[in-house]
Give the backbone structure.
Amino acid sequence: MSELTAINRTDVAREEWDAFVEASPEAWLWHRYDLCEALGRWEHSTDASFAVRENGRLVAVMPLRQIGYRRLHVLRVSDLESLGGPAVAEGLGRRLATRVRQRAVECAAGRAVGRPMEMRVALPPLAPAFRGETAPKVNPLLELGFDNVLTQTWMVDLRTGPDELWQRLEGRARTAVRKAEREGISVREASPESADLDAYERLHAATCARTGIQAHPREYFEAIWRHFLPAGLARVLLAERDGSIVAARNFGVHKRGAWAWTAAGLEEAGPLGANALLQWEAMRLFAREGLEWSDSGEGFPGSSDPKQRGLSEFKRSFGGELSPLYRGRMELRATALRRLDALRA
């Protein structure tokens, strides 16, 4: 039986890593070399991403970061989080592919340092293997020993003409778009120039202060502007009124799919319809360019939280349908290690 060896992301050339991501049907933007690095720069985070080789050839990559925090305000513990999960090479054959995935999960669990509590994994719903008609009927993470914490995301099929896309919008979405147009709001794409980056960061900081969430570090947005925007892997749309930017949306674009990555705006942007106009203009743009799917973001149907419910209804109003967002959770304790041993048996 061939040996499967795990190596650090930083020990793989960026070009080789990203070429693998391009070729694997299970990999998406979340697996890209530079995004792994950017996420590792978040506060309390350390990048632990790695690849798996078989006899020298790359057979899997797995984004991974360790997140430290204090439990009960005293004990220092950490979690592992993988935005993307293990992506294996195409054409390995079912038996070898399964073994490679199991090896990747084993290696990921072994990378935890200190007092690890759990590992969380989300598979990319826009990866070709997990979207549309090819989406698995059962969470693929179950056979890797994860507990099933599957949720759902609002996915818009862009493979129609603009007239049908408009008709599929709910009435409130069309009303908001028309209102924004009457209010004189226009939409343009952000440039790689630092002025647009500065404006986006200011909007992001204002949004986080208003909603009480922690802001992303500037280095994160700098990575998007430096690596993703020039390569066409990110498209940032800005909504302007009277020469001032009132709202912005950043979309990750890869493999004919667009993901609502980050968003920011002034408090008045919603009532003005600016957020709706940005979403609609992005859908039109992506459809014209031949993209097939647009992921509007995780949905929370039936949530008792008013904020979650309102956000989910906004996403639904753009004609999306709920699609699976495969998530898994594993405790990093003796029970989890026994479960991994059972998988290898």
User: Anything to note?
Assistant: The CA atoms of residues 51 and 61 lie 4 Å apart.
